[in-house]
Amino acid sequence: MNLWNIIKSFLNLLFILLMMQTAINAHSTQILTKKIKLETDTVPHISTKDRISEIFRNQKIHAISVYYDNSTSSKQSVLKRPYCPNGFAAAIFHAYNHHQHLRLSPDDIWLTISQGISRHINFNAEKFRNRFVKHEGKILIKIYAIDILSLYDNNTLAGNWPEVVNRLVIETNKYVEKIDLVQLLECDFSTTTSSSLAASRIVLLDAVKSYFDYMVLLLCGIPKVTLEGTLEDWTKIQKKITKLRNLNLELNFWLNRLEPVIQKLVDTYRGKVDEKFWSNIISIMSYGSGGETVTGWISAFFPYDRKGEALHSNFIDLDDIPDGIVEVPFDTDIGLSLKFVAGFIGANQETLENLSSELVVSPVIGWAIVDNETYSSNMDESVLERQHHEL
After folding, report:
1. CA–CA separation, 388 vs 231, rounded Å?
2. Where is the secretion signal located (predicted)?
């Protein structure tokens, strides 16, 4: 890339950033009257969390929007004694009665309107049923969230709740006819924050709750397992691991995690099923930058991650799981540089008659011989000529 292209790229990036900043700072402030003196007295506030706890007394709070909203406009506290429970109205009442500067965003206005639309639809659900859906009664909307939510010891369900809402909206929208409620009711303004977006999506779910029930599924797992081979095969694995220990290859950091897992597999073969053990085979935790960490005893099968870092616990980033393939390069006397490739090629589903014609999922082991470098047709001509004469 030449200097001019670099400069153009920089200027384009600068323009985009300036436009974003302009959108963030855009506003219109107007003097409404000069007859009333602008007051600046403050009154006591409480945290948003405390206010929600007051509204939902004796109910566990699993998540609050302020935990997810990193925008500069994120409001962490609210008036301790508002004029009314409705925050939109309370802000207007307080500004009016205390002669203070009122600030409103398009999100404030549209969310209030959306709530009004939602109430109207719910109060007239059967009258408008055919305008929104084709079915009678309610359809159960189910989404899986095991990858983004986790249940903690205090029975708190935490994780990426905005994405849970988004998934429910996407699935619900598949059954809504004619009217694009998502585009209509969602907050999609230059002022929209992650909190106002999620709130508007929840209003959308509220608008059609007379036609749908919602379920978030967290109990992903393996309902049934078949362990092939004989019991002797499985106990042989245990014996091999013992021999590995005796080689003194400094593998204890790995084998200490692996041995208990193999013992549980042997127990399972014998019919001693530990449901808790199998439910802990995999758990996926998402974190802010978009990455995912895998916990559970599946990690016990890996001494190192993809980058060569030793694993000392059953935690591994999803992207760092080894690819399951090994490569062994070799040369030939005809000028070809090749390599053996072997391991887990992938996984497949199949229906097996000897297993009650049930669909089963299993790893696929395979191997291949491939070039050890990018393919080239420029094989040494002398080698080819020698081959020809030998033939």
Report:
1. 54
2. 1-26
Q: What is the mean pLDDT of residues 81-106?
A: 91
Helix ranges restricted to H, 291-357: none
DSSP state for residue 220 in the 8-state scheme: -
Short-list 208, 161, 199, CA closest to 180: 208
Alpha carbons 126 and 112: distance in angstroms, whole number: 23
∠ CA(132), CA(109), CA(124), 5° rounding? 30
pTM, whole model, 2 decimals?
A: 0.61
Q: Tokens 């895998």: give the residue.
A: 294
Q: Show the tokens assigned to 338.
A: 């090749």
Query: At CB < 8 A and 24+ separation, what contacts does 186-192 make?
Result: 187/106, 187/107, 187/110, 187/111, 189/105, 189/106, 189/107, 189/110, 190/23, 190/24, 190/26, 190/106, 191/73, 191/105, 191/106, 191/107, 192/106, 192/107
Tokens of 295: 């916990």
Distance CA 113, CA 103 (A): 17
Look up tokens 């706890």; give the residue.
53
Instruction: Give the pLDDT mean for 228-232.
Output: 93
